[in-house]
Amino acid sequence: MEMFKYPIYVTQPLTPNILEVTKEIEQVLESKWLTNFGNKHELLVEELKNYLEVGHLSLFNNGTSALTLGLKALELTGEVITTPFTFPATVQALDWNNLTPVFCDVEKNSLNINPDKIEEKITGKTSAILAVHVFGNPCNVEKIQQIADKYNLKVIYDGAHAFGAQYKGESLANFGDMTMFSFHATKLFNTIEGGALVYPDNRLAEKLRVLTNFGLSSPEKVEVSGFNGKMNEIQAVIGLGNLRVLEEERKNRERIRQTYVGEFTKIPGIRIITNRKKRESSYQYFVIEIDEDEFGISRDKLHYGLKSYNIFTRRYFYPLCSEFHWYRDLDSAKRKNLPIAWEKVNQVLTLPFYGGLEDEKIKIVCDAIKEIQFKNAL
Ligand code: T4K
């Protein structure tokens, strides 16, 4: 098999109907109202509330500012129990709030925070649990809530990958005190850059609006130290347009998921991490785990091998956040305390997955994987 002519990346952004959004962008520009909670912004809030089946939702200029301001709005203090297996933004939002992460190991199957390990991490300083629905697979929300209730802790979900996913028939967005969604270009639903917070407590709406707008509660009153976290009108137009093509994209991704599943279930040593379907899935990523003994080669050999075919997979989320140098002195960051996270971070590989991935390219990816395995096993 020869190297594929054009690179195949891990994802490609969903884009709206260009004619429709061009018209809407014209309207926005003509209206001379470009940002600061404009009409398109408000319309997107309503449409997303509807889509996610939530009561309250605030928009932001990206997921990181959403999470950072959300943690601030909840007035958390001291320590927050979280996962090391996530994108840096999760823990950086804690850093910006002067909160100390307490790293907790993950579950073998879901790769999400292991609720059975949370209680032993709780101290008098713990104020919250910040869990991540990694790759869109839901955390054990019931167990996490039980622990939070017992110790009076807040629960925040980083749902950057979990847009639109359901848990036991209910919108995953309805669990915990707050959930953040990222609308970055690489996310299934995107506003190019953007993010949202959803929450059951309606008092947070005004608080978040103030925090998102420099702490201004009125033109001349600065109530708190906030910052500029606002989503602009063009971002909102892209979001409205992408909502109109979202279901079609989900269908295309379901087809690709099925093809991958069909191929990989035949190969010993590959476990599919993101194997949920229909309303249960966020269709954000397609992730596999490589068991080196069974598969014959390591995840890294496969990752680099695919690169030589012009196929760019990602080793999300390597390195673990607990490895960041500024956490060096934290006991919870030590390798011996995070055995499963360390094992999995060296086994997991995110494969190309987006609606526009043609059958021919899916076949190239699958054939390349088999060929690399075969060649290396010789
Ligand atoms: N929490 C979690 C758990 C997260 O995963 C993230 C973000 C956040 C919080 C923070 O949310 P935001 O503040 O970002 O809203 C990407 C994204 O930039 C990032 O949003 C995402 N998670 C993370 C998992 O993935 P990179 O460094 O992998 O991006 P990049 O530029 O390498 O893009 C990946 C591939 O996508 C490229 O190989 C090609 C393709 N691509 C990318 C862009 C930007 C395109 O085809 N077109 C594009 O415009 O971080």
Pick out its properties.
2 domains; Aspartate Aminotransferase, domain 1; 7-stranded mixed sheet; Aspartate Aminotransferase, domain 2; 11 helices; globular; alpha/beta; binds ligand T4K; 37% helix; 378 residues; 3-stranded antiparallel sheet; 14 strands
**Tally of discrete structural domains:** 2
Output the helix-strand order.
HHEHEHEEHEEEEEHEEHEEHHHEH
Helix-and-strand structural type: alpha/beta
Mean pLDDT over the full residue set: 96
In CATH terms, what is the architecture of the largest domain? 3-Layer(aba) Sandwich
Describe it for me?
- There is one protein chain.
- By secondary structure, this protein is α/β, with parallel strands linked by helices.
- The chain folds into two domains: 8-12 and 246-377, Aspartate Aminotransferase, domain 1; 18-240, Type I PLP-dependent aspartate aminotransferase-like (Major domain) (Aspartate Aminotransferase, domain 2), CATH 3.40.640.10.
- Helices cover 37% and strands 14% of the residues.
- It has helices spanning 18-31, 39-52, 63-73, 88-96, 141-151, 203-212, 233-264, 292-295, 299-307, 339-345, 359-377, and strands at residues 57-60, 79-82, 100-103, 126-132, 154-158, 166-167, 170-171, 178-182, 195-198, 216-218, 221-222, 270-272, 286-290, 348-351.
- Strands 1-9-8-5-4-2-3 form a seven-stranded mixed sheet, sandwiched between helices. It has a three-stranded antiparallel sheet with strand order 12-13-14. A two-stranded antiparallel ribbon has the order 6-7.
- Helix 2 (39-52) runs parallel beside helix 7 and helix 3 (63-73) packs across helix 6 (203-212).
- It is globular and about 70 Å long.
- The mean pLDDT is 96.
- Residues 9-13, 62-64, 86-87, 89-90, 132, 158, 160, 182, 184-186, 195, 312, 316 line the site of ligand T4K.
- Ligand T4K binds next to helix 3 and helix 4.
